[in-house]
Structure formats: structure tokens, C-alpha cells
Amino acid sequence: MKKVTKNPIPQGKYISAVRHANIIYTSGMTPRKDGVLLHSGKIKVSVPIEVYKEGVELATLNAIGSVLNCLEMNEKISTVLQMHVFLNTEHGFTQHSKIADFASETIINVLGIKSIGSRVAVGVASLPSNATVEIVLVCCVN
């Protein structure tokens, strides 16, 4: 498992996460390292889904890192209330849930099984910078 990036670099005029009380909402996180997009293009029907695992993990780790930036001393993420997984898919792709499972597995590996919450997996026509995936988290902290 790769390391959580604690300071994902915003690609526009926004912040990577915002906090209200004990809830933290992230912006959409793509598979970037040090601001450089590492996984781009359409998710293809003809390609094994495992090819996309690394990009999904990286985007998920970036989202977790954005949440960690909002924590105060002695706080931790208690639950991912909801995760949104947006996939840049070609027409006819139907394995959204299986690719979204890579994001869920990353959450479980980093935060534990009890942290997992609800999830939305959606195929879209395009994503910013032609990223393969974009992850949004809504987390509760304590």
C-alpha cells in the first residue's frame, strides 16, 4: 500500500477539504502525485479492471490525505460517511462497482473495516485533465 499524501495540490481555485463541526468534505481527488496526474484516459471495457487499481488507490489516498489535513490534535477519522467514485468510462462499461471496490479496500486498509460507509459509483463522459478516476469523501471525525 502506498503512503497517504497529506498535502494534495489543488488544481484550481478551491481548497482540498472543508470542515464543518465534526464532518469533513473533500474536493474531488484524482490520481496525482506532487500535482502530476499519473493515470489518465478512459476506462475501457476490453482492459482488465486490475489495470486501474493503482490509480484508484492513489486518488483515494489523496482524498484521505485531504481529510487528515483538517484534523486537530488527537483527532482521527472515525467513519467515511459517504464516498463518491467517478469513473471516466467508455460507452458500454458496466463494472463500476468492482473498480469502486478498490477505493473501498484502500479505505479499509488505511482506516480499518469499521470506517467504511456508503458509496456512490458513477461512470462519466470525462473528468478533469482526462483523469481515469475522481474520489470524493465525506468523513466524520472524533
Automatic annotation (TrEMBL):
<protein>
    <submittedName>
        <fullName>Enamine deaminase RidA, house cleaning of reactive enamine intermediates, YjgF/YER057c/UK114 family</fullName>
    </submittedName>
</protein>
<dbReference type="InterPro" id="IPR006175">
    <property type="entry name" value="YjgF/YER057c/UK114"/>
</dbReference>
<dbReference type="InterPro" id="IPR013813">
    <property type="entry name" value="Endoribo_LPSP/chorism_mut-like"/>
</dbReference>
<dbReference type="Pfam" id="PF01042">
    <property type="entry name" value="Ribonuc_L-PSP"/>
</dbReference>
<dbReference type="InterPro" id="IPR035959">
    <property type="entry name" value="RutC-like_sf"/>
</dbReference>
